[in-house]
UniProtKB/TrEMBL annotation:
This is Cadherin domain-containing protein. Gene3D superfamilies: 3.30.1920.20, Cupredoxins - blue copper proteins, Immunoglobulins. One of its GO terms (biological process) is homophilic cell adhesion via plasma membrane adhesion molecules. Residues 209-355, 585-731 form the Cadherin domain. GO terms for cellular component: membrane. Residues 536-555, 897-927 are annotated as: Disordered. Residues 917-927 have a biased composition (Basic and acidic residues). Residues 1-35 form the signal peptide. Keywords: Signal. NCBIfam families: barrel_OmpL47. The lineage of its organism: Bacteria, Bacillati, Actinomycetota, Actinomycetes, Streptosporangiales. SUPFAM superfamilies: Cupredoxins, E set domains. GO terms for molecular function: calcium ion binding. InterPro entries: Cadherin-like_dom (IPR002126), Cupredoxin (IPR008972), Ig-like_fold (IPR013783), Ig-like_OmpL47-like (IPR058094), Ig_E-set (IPR014756).
Length: 927
């Protein structure tokens, strides 16, 4: 009976195990054969080479395998897992041998998941063929609640590993045009070892100590950097240190300027400026900071669309194309637009051009062209317009007409002509005929020319009152071209009618003629005298005197003075002029009188006409002074550059050069300048230079004695003025201080105002507290008066633009009494648990803290004795094993709670251990 009971108990256990496995296996695991079933060819190769056998055994225990290997050599291996009555598994408990393929730090190249039970078909003993590689494998039992786990270290088989790992590094990140990394650079280190395997990788930043490499290294400190790296394999071989060098630069300032965008219209226009048939809109955008991201357009108020190529509009009517651009920083330009009208193209042109021709040149009496005839062709087309004009001379092929056609070959000629318009219509050919004759023999004989004087004569043969000269010329060959005459030695003028001479006195008229061949006759002349009609002259001449010469500052003549006497008489004429110097006797005046004796002088003068009338004596008085010593010293000269300067000392928009010269002896005569090596020019006023670029103005001065200063120069640079700043500064304010739970500031609030202006720059910042007048902001504003407050703020840039006033509102409250009580802190664990109250896969710890006085400032935790870290969200622990989490909280008054602890176990989540899925039959329970 006892034996039967034992057998029955065993049978029941087996039945329960079989039932559980029948339910669980389809969803969770493959069969032992399926778990490690290589392809037939691979299985054969492994079987042939599998010289190593590793055996795991299990018994009734749930915390460790009965036997498990810890080391092996790489290569083909037979893995045996036995969970049988023979190994001590007398309860009929099912175990698995599962290799971890997910936890970082272990080999994942072998998949083993053997399920064994003393009552399965193989009696609990199973084996699979695998190929192990150097490294560490983690194995465990995947049955929920079982804590069987271990590691298998595999080394390279055959010989000792003496080769260091291969290691390399790569730098990545955003680069600027110089190859520098903008903001940060990331160094990724890779290592491999085909023998014992990589044990650890290390790096050192900028000659610091080597430290373990576990993830890519981010370097964000601006400057030049070097990262060294090395790797060690499991045999202890260390690679030589490699290095990568790079430079990190600060990212550029944020782009707040929208792109520049413009549009251009093109197409065929009519006389009214409308586009015929279609118009093409080409949009261009540029952004010198972050760059253009997108360009958009809207046709006739339709939704904006992405612009990728020129837009052609062929719908007749008035149109508006609006456009804008956005840069890569998100700044969008203001919407601009172009307007235009498209009209229907005119009906097809079927009318040929109008075309005509004109012959020109010198003709003879018979209408023939002498020596040369020129044919000029004209064409018009009021529809599509003239495309080309052609001509043909004397039956030759038509050729393009581009200029009047000259024909100098003697004989009869015919020129045909025609025109074609842009629609392809060609006019009927027209023609002109003409004859070119040789020019006559060259004329080398001058014209015959003569003159005749006529008029009333007195008894002496003189012409009374006037004389008329008539000139006659003839040329029997080329003909007379021009006749010229000259009266009393004056320049020759063209003769076109008889010349009347009324001026009393002796006269000579010279004359000559030129024929059409250019032959000029010799100059001939006639001489005669005109006398006035009888009438007694009783009026003396008009006479005046004028003094000239160099004067000094007092009006005295320096060195000498010249007296010039002028007299006129409109009746009988001036007979003589006389002068007297300094009360001396009158003498005949025939030329200007020069007086060079130093002292005061008076010159009297008078004139007598031919009727004997003498004018009253006139006089001029003046003073002659000795000339100063000769000036041999050049003038003093200097130049001054003025204008608005930028911070680099360049002149913005224009520079003005003012040149000054002085000479204390003879005085400055001229000042000259040369701009950028051009020829010297006379300087008369300040010189303004507005052409952008570097310039040199050279200058010199010359005095009245002819002395010229050495050339001096000034250099300067003119730059284009910046666009006018019409944008107000950006201004913001922040309030800082200690807040209570209601957000009020305890005891004191500080308002900090910030302003920026990327164009002309910030000139001033102002603030106003609680409605008071605006005052200059120079430092953060502290407000400690209890109550509600409003601080307004604004900024003005150097171009005078003032931002709209912004404001911040806050409340200051009386500080509470000092908090001396530490916060309350607690922790809660959550996750899926197995039958043994272990957390399966992971456990999540949620920490809560409260403080009824100053409030919680920080919450911290420590996992398994590590340094305390700031707690900001629930902590998930997935590493299998026993864990202790310590936690504490600190309030805003600095009080720290006692350290609390939470202890728990995490077990691996192997295949089939997903406790989050419905069904308690999987051996899990929710916490």
């Amino acid at each position: 009976m006892q034996l039967l009971t034992g057998r029955l108990r065993g049978a029941l256990r087996a039945a329960v195990a079989v039932v559980l496995l029948c339910v669980a296996l389809p969803a969770l695991w493959l069969s032992p054969a399926e778990a490690a079933a290589p392809q037939p060819e691979a299985r054969q190769q492994v079987s042939q080479a599998a010289a190593q056998v590793l055996t795991w055994t299990a018994d009734n225990g749930m915390t460790a395998y009965k036997d498990a290997p810890t080391t092996a050599v790489a290569g083909p291996t037979t893995i045996v897992f036995e969970n049988s009555m023979a190994t001590g598994s007398t309860f009929g408990m099912t175990h698995t041998l599962t290799f971890d393929t997910t936890t970082p730090g272990y080999n994942h190249d072998v998949t083993v998941n053997i399920i064994a039970s003393p009552y399965d078909a193989d009696g609990g003993r199973h084996e699979v063929q695998v190929n192990l590689t150097p490294g560490t494998y983690r194995f465990f039992c995947a049955i929920p609640g079982h804590q069987m786990v271990g590691e298998l270290v595999v080394t390279a088989g055959g010989s000792t590993d003496t080769t260091a790992p291969q290691v390399s590094a790569n730098v990545s990140g955003e680069k600027d045009a110089d190859g520098n990394y903008v903001g940060s650079a990331t160094v990724t280190v890779s290592a491999s070892d085909t023998e014992s395997g990589v044990d650890r990788v290390e790096y050192a930043l900028d000659n610091g100590a080597f430290t373990t490499y576990s993830a890519p290294v981010s370097v964000n400190t601006a400057g030049s950097h070097t990262v060294q790296y090395r790797a060690t394999d499991k045999a202890g071989n260390v690679s030589p240190a490699g290095s990568v060098s790079f430079k990190v630069v600060a990212p550029p300032a944020k782009d707040t300027t929208a792109p520049q965008v413009s549009a251009n219209l093109s197409g065929e226009k009519d006389a009214d400026g409308n586009y015929v048939g279609s118009a093409t809109v080409t949009i261009s955008a540029s952004d010198s900071e972050s760059g253009v991201d997108t360009v958009e357009y809207s046709l006739d108020s339709q939704p904006f669309a992405l612009y990728s190529k020129a837009l052609t509009v062929d719908q007749p009517g008035a149109h508006r194309v609006s456009y804008r651009a956005t840069d890569k920083a998100g700044n969008t330009s203001a919407v601009a637009s172009v307007t235009f009208t498209v009209v229907v193209p005119p009906a097809k042109d079927t009318t040929a051009p109008q075309v005509s021709a004109q012959v020109s040149g010198d003709k003879d009496a018979d209408g023939n062209y002498v020596g040369l005839a020129t044919v000029t062709v004209s064409a018009t087309d009021t529809e599509s317009g003239v495309d080309k004009v052609e001509y043909a001379l004397d039956g030759a092929a038509f050729a393009t007409y581009s200029a009047p056609v000259s024909v100098n070959k003697t004989g009869s000629h015919t020129v045909q002509y025609r025109a074609t318009d842009k629609a392809g219509n060609t006019s009927p050919a027209g023609s002109v005929s003409f004859t070119v004759v040789a020019p006559p023999a060259k004329d080398t004989t001058a014209p015959q020319v003569s003159a005749q004087v006529s008029g009333d004569k007195d008894a002496d043969g003189n012409y009374v009152g006037s004389a008329t000269v008539t000139v006659s010329a003839s040329d029997t060959e080329s003909g007379v071209a021009t006749v010229e005459y000259s009266l009393d030695g004056q320049p020759f003028g063209l003769y076109s009618a008889p010349v009347a001479v009324k001026q009393a006195g002796a006269h000579t008229v010279s004359y000559r003629a030129t024929d059409k061949a250019g032959n000029a006759s010799d100059v001939a002349s006639v001489t005669f005298k005109v006398v006035a009609p009888e009438q007694k002259d009783t009026t003396p001449p008009l006479v005046s005197g004028q003094v000239s010469g160099d004067k000094d500052a007092d009006g005295n003549y320096v060195g000498s003075a010249t007296v010039t006497v002028s007299a006129s008489d409109t009746e009988s004429g001036v007979d003589r002029v006389e002068y007297a110097l300094d009360s001396g006797a009158f003498a005949t005046y025939s030329a200007p009188v020069s007086v060079n004796t130093a002292g005061s002088h008076t010159v009297q003068y008078r004139a007598t006409d031919k009727a004997g009338n003498t004018s009253p004596a006139g006089s001029v008085t003046f003073k002659v002074v000795a000339p100063p010593a000769k000036d041999t010293t050049a003038p003093q000269v200097s130049a001054q550059v003025s204008g608005d300067k930028d911070t680099n000392g360049n002149y913005v928009g224009s520079a003005t050069v003012t040149i000054s010269a002085s000479d204390s002896e003879s005085g400055v005569d001229t000042v000259e300048y040369s701009l950028d090596s051009q020829p010297f020019a006379l300087y008369s006023k300040a010189l303004t230079v507005d052409q952008p670029g570097a310039h040199r103005v050279s200058y010199r001065a010359t005095d009245k004695a002819g002395n010229t200063s050495a050339v001096a120069s000034v250099t300067f640079t003119v730059v284009v003025p910046p666009a006018k700043d019409t944008t107000a500064p950006q201004v913001s304010a922040g309030v800082s201080g200690t807040k209570d739970a209601d957000g009020n500031y305890v005891g004191l609030a500080t308002v900090t105002v910030s302003a920026t202006d990327s164009e002309s720059g910030v000139d001033k910042v102002e603030y106003a507290l609680d409605g008071a007048a605006f005052a200059a902001y120079t430092a953060p504003v502290s407000v400690n008066k209890t109550g509600s407050h409003t601080v307004q703020y604004r900024a003005t840039d150097k171009a005078g633009n003032t931002s709209p006033a912004g404001s911040v509102t806050f409340k200051v409250v009386v500080p509470e009494q000092k908090d001396t009580t530490a916060p309350q802190v607690s922790a809660q664990l959550s996750g899926s648990m197995d039958w043994a109250w272990n957390y399966v896969g992971s456990a999540t710890l949620t920490i809560s803290a409260t403080d009824g006085e100053s409030g919680v400032a920080t919450v911290e935790y420590s996992l398994d004795g590590q340094p305390f870290a700031l707690y900001s969200k629930p902590v998930a622990v997935g590493q299998p094993g026993a864990h202790t989490v310590s936690y504490r909280a600190t309030d805003k008054a600095g009080n720290t709670s006692n350290v609390g602890t939470a202890k728990f176990n995490v077990v691996g989540a192997g295949p089939g251990s997903d406790c989050t899925k419905p069904g308690k039959d999987k051996g899990c329970k929710d916490d």
